[in-house]
Structures are given as C-alpha cells and as structure tokens.
Write a structure and sequence with these properties.
By secondary structure, the chain is mainly α. It has helices at residues 2-13, 16-46, 48-68, 72-85, 89-121, 127-136, 140-155, 159-184, 191-216, 230-261, 264-277, 282-300, 304-331, 333-338, 348-364, 367-372, 377-430. The protein has one domain (2-430).
C-alpha cells in the first residue's frame, strides 16, 4: 500500500505543473508555519482578546481590498494567458495600465471612507476591535495592489515569484521583528505594535514584489503601445469581482460577525480554530495558484482530456498530503488549540466542524476556478449569492445562541453546500469531474 502511494506521487510529480504545485505548497506551508508562530506569540503573551483585535482589523482590510481590486486580478488570470498565446502584447499592456489606475484610486477612497464612518459612529462598539481596525486600515491600498500585481506574475506562470514576497519574505520579516521586540523591549510589546509591524511587513512585500513584476512582466511589454478594451474588461471584471468578492466575504464573515456580536475574545478563539482548519486546505490553495491560468489555456484550446487528467492527478496528490492533518485535528483538537493558550480550548468543537467541512472542500476540487476560468462566471455567481444569503442568515442566527460553535456550523454548512453544488455545475457545464471520486 505504502509503496503504491509513493509510486503514484512520483508519477504525478514528474509532471511540471505538479512540481509547481509542490513548490507553491512548500511556500504556503512556510507562510502558514510562520503565521502560526506569530499567533502563538500573540496569544500566549497578549491573550485571545488581543489576537481577536489583530484578526478583526486585517479581516476587514483583506475583505475590502479584494473588492477594491474590482475583479481585475481575476481578469488577468483569465485573459493574459490567452492574449500571450495570440501574441497580443498591446492588450496585455493596456490591461495592466487600465487596472492599475482604477484599483489604486478605489482602494484609497475605500480606506478613507471606512475610517471616516468608523470614527463618526464609533463602531465596532468594542474599543479594542475599533482601534485595531483603525491601525490596520492604512495598508488596505497596499494589500489591493499586492493582490493585483502578484496576479500578473501568476498570469505569466511565474508562480513561485508571485508567492515569495507575500508568503515568505513578509511573514519572516514580521516574525523576526516581533521576536526582536519581545526579547529586547518586552514591556513595549502590545497588540497595537504588532499590528503596525504587520503593516510594515506588508508594505515591504509590495516593494519587493514590484521589483519582480517590473523585471519579469512589465519589462517584456515596456515598449509596446497599449491597446484598451475598456468596456469588455469592465464587464468581465465585474462578474469576476462578484464571484471572488463573495468567496472572500464568506471566508471573513464569521470573524467579522463574532467581533460585532460577541467581542474580541470569541473572535480570537474562532480565528485560531479557523486558521488551523485551513491547514488541510493549503494544498488546494497551492493547486489553485498554479492551475488557474492552465485551466483557462487548456479550455480555450479544447484540450479537455488533458485538463481532466491534470485536475484529477493534482487533486489526488494533494489529498494524500492533507490526510495526516485531517486525522490529527479530528482526534486531538484540544491539544492543538491549547498550544495557543488554555482559553483557546473552547474552540474544540468548532475546529472539528471546520475540519470536516474542509474535507468536502478539498474533495470537490478547484470548482470556483473551473467555472470562472471557463467562462461560466454567471453560474458561479448564482450559486455563491444563494449560499452567501443562507450563510449570512445562519451566522447571525446561530452566533448569539451558540457563539463560536454557531459560527463554525454556519461556515461548515456553507463549505459543504457551496462546493457540492459547484462540483455538479462544473460537470454539467464543462464535462469535467472536479472531485476525488473519479475512477476512469
């Protein structure tokens, strides 16, 4: 049994795209371990409430930054591979210039509006959460630009370079800076300083990432006269924005709702449970980073058998690496949660619920990208809006009575329902079986 598994992995890793996935996964694993190390420091030194303020502020920043991109990062993944194959460098140059101006403008306006509204109405009511939000908001435009410009690298298949600044350099610098403060000026370490250090590391990631973007992408089209298809881009980007935006809304909904309804401590406990459950999904994220432009290219070329083979092989390889994490979290949830402090043991049931739902998420594969990268954004959007409405109602209904467990139930139901429905839609629209349950 073991030898057959090893042989299967070797066969898959021989394929270039699978090697790319493994490299991206290694980068994601490093980012996650570094992030968990930082979380351990914050929670054990400053407590659950402080971590709740930290998570709440950056959850809002990441959510609004996603909407500020207006779908242009997803548009690059969809259109640039096709433009490059057709030799349309002028359209690539035009798309980059067009999207850059709009994303920067919208993200700055969104930052100013959010701060003004929060300051005027003094929300959220919890002062710690409110102050954490205010300190995190200035990096909203930086986060939006990271999402946009790093997508340009992915669209040109520079998958490793697209991940290095934000997933390796940023968390490493953040961790080292927190450790320096802890060992040299321990009495000065508080959640506000931690938020500022995180913001500085995000800015550094953008600076370094811009170097990669300019060297690997912009330099290849610097002398090209840009051509614009503004109306087409806006229409397609808007549909992609709604899909990606709703996805990200669903990923941040429970943390934001807990912050509004239950306060900083419950927010912190759930944030840790959610982050741990994400461990098993990091291979799926690595797959999506590599596969998104490949899906677009192969589908446009009508190479359906090759696309099916790549999807199935990558998913099965990834699932093998996720099995140990799933088993550990289902059998020893309290142990892993209490590494962050005794008060985090309250998230035991929440972690188990989220882990089970993540199994379904992984088992159905890259359904979102399979719909959006093949031109079926409308179907994806219909399913997302239906599930988002149901999940929002469940979240605000269950949290007042069941706290973090209610949040986990709502998130779990969304994960299972949305991914199963999307897997069915992918098969009906494209003929591709995105799931692990494929035997031919």
């Amino acid at each position: 049994m073991i030898s057959s598994v090893i042989r299967f992995i070797r066969q898959q890793v021989d394929q270039k795209h699978t090697r790319d996935i493994m490299v991206v996964f290694a980068i994601q694993a490093f980012a996650l371990l570094t992030s968990l190390s930082i979380s351990l420091l914050i929670t054990n030194i400053l407590g659950a409430a402080a971590y709740g303020a930290f998570s709440y502020g950056f959850s809002w920043v990441n959510l609004v930054a996603t909407f500020s991109c207006m779908g242009f990062e997803q548009l690059a993944l969809k259109e640039v591979p096709a433009y490059r194959a057709a030799g349309k460098s002028d359209l690539i140059r035009g798309l980059f210039r067009f999207s850059m101006k709009r994303v920067l403008t919208v993200s700055v306006i969104a930052t100013l509006m959010m701060f003004t509204v929060s300051w005027l109405i003094q929300q959220p009511a919890d002062e710690m959460l409110r102050k954490g939000l205010w300190l995190a908001l200035p990096v909203l435009p930086v986060t939006a630009l990271i999402n946009l410009r790093f997508a340009w690298l992915r669209s040109e298949h520079w998958n490793t370079l697209s991940q290095l600044p934000d997933k390796v350099i940023r968390p490493a610098v953040f961790l080292v800076s927190v450790l320096i403060i802890y060992f040299i000026w321990k009495e000065s370490l508080n959640v506000w300083l931690v938020i500022l250090l995180s913001a500085a590391s995000i800015l550094l990631a953008l600076v370094i990432g811009n170097y990669f973007v300019n060297r690997r992408v912009i330099s290849t089209i610097a002398e090209v006269t840009p051509v614009f298809e503004s109306e087409k881009w806006m229409k397609t980007a808007f549909a992609l924005l709604l899909v990606n935006g709703v996805y990200f809304y669903l990923s941040q909904l429970q943390i934001i709702a807990l912050g509004s309804l239950r306060g900083a401590k419950d927010t912190g406990v759930f944030a840790i449970a959610s982050r741990l459950s994400d461990l098993e999904g990091y291979m799926l994220f690595a797959m999506n980073v590599v596969l998104a432009p490949i899906i677009s290219k192969l589908y446009a070329e009508k190479k359906m058998e090759e696309l099916q083979r790549i999807i199935t092989g990558s998913l099965r390889t990834g699932f093998i690496f996720s099995i140990p994490v799933i088993a550990l979290f289902l059998n020893y949830p309290t142990f892993f949660l209490q590494l962050f402090g005794d008060e985090f043991g309250e998230g035991r049931l929440a972690l188990m619920i989220l882990t089970v739902s993540q199994i379904v998420n992984f088992g159905t594969g890259s359904v979102g990208y399979l719909l959006t990268m093949t031109g079926h954004q409308k179907t994806a959007l219909q399913l997302l809006f239906s599930c988002a409405l149901l999940t929002t109602v469940l979240t605000f209904f269950l949290i007042p009575s069941f706290g973090i467990n209610g949040a986990a139930i709502a998130a779990g139901i969304n994960n299972i329902l949305l991914n199963v429905l999307m897997a069915v839609a992918v098969y009906r629209k494209t003929g591709i079986n995105s799931t692990l349950l494929r035997f031919k």
